[in-house]
Amino acid sequence: MAVSDTQGERSLADKLNYLFSKVRVAGQAEYSNEHVAAAIREQGVNISQSYIWALRKGRSDNPTKRHLEALANFFGVPPAYFFDDAHAARVDAQLDLITALRDADVRDVALRTMELDDDARRSVARIVAEISQIRGYRSGGAPGQSSSSPDA
Question: Which molecular function term from Gene Ontology is one that the record holds (predicted)?
Answer without folding.
Answer: DNA binding
